[in-house]
């Protein structure tokens, strides 16, 4: 379901990060989300798009600096998260 809404916990699990880190990223506007009654919520498709952009940025930076192998673990983790989004 493209318009599925996720909680901070679900986004943290998806990104394989701590909930506090997800909260900090959302509060800083670094991941796309919105608040409902003081609680963070995220559209699944927006998170998928954000991940894709991050992967592209990492790949571009890796190619530009010839450091692709250093970024591959992060890229693979992001690609796995995209796969879990279905």
Distance between the termini: 9 Å
- CATH T-level topology: Multidrug-efflux Transporter Regulator, Chain: A, Domain 2
Mean pLDDT: 85
What is the count of helical runs? 4
Shape: globular
Largest sheet: spatial strand order = 1-3-2
Overall description:
The chain is built from four helices and three strands. A three-stranded antiparallel beta sheet has the order 1-3-2. It has one domain (5-85): Orthogonal Bundle (Multidrug-efflux Transporter Regulator, Chain: A, Domain 2). Helix 1 (8-15) crosses helix 2 (19-27) and helix 3 (44-65) runs antiparallel to helix 4. A hairpin with a 2-residue loop joins strand 2 (34-36) and strand 3. 14% of the residues are buried. It has 86 residues and is α+β, with helices and mostly antiparallel strands. It has helices at residues 8-15, 19-27, 44-65, 68-85, and strands spanning 5-7, 34-36, 39-43.
């Amino acid at each position: 379901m493209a318009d599925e809404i996720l909680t901070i916990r679900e986004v943290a699990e998806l990104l394989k990060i701590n909930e506090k880190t997800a909260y900090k990223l959302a509060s800083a506007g670094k991941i796309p989300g919105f608040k409902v009654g003081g609680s963070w919520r995220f559209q699944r498709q927006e998170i998928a798009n954000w991940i894709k952009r991050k992967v592209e940025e990492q790949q571009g930076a890796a190619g530009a600096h010839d450091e692709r192998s250093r970024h591959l673990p992060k890229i693979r983790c992001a690609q796995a998260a995209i796969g879990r989004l279905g």
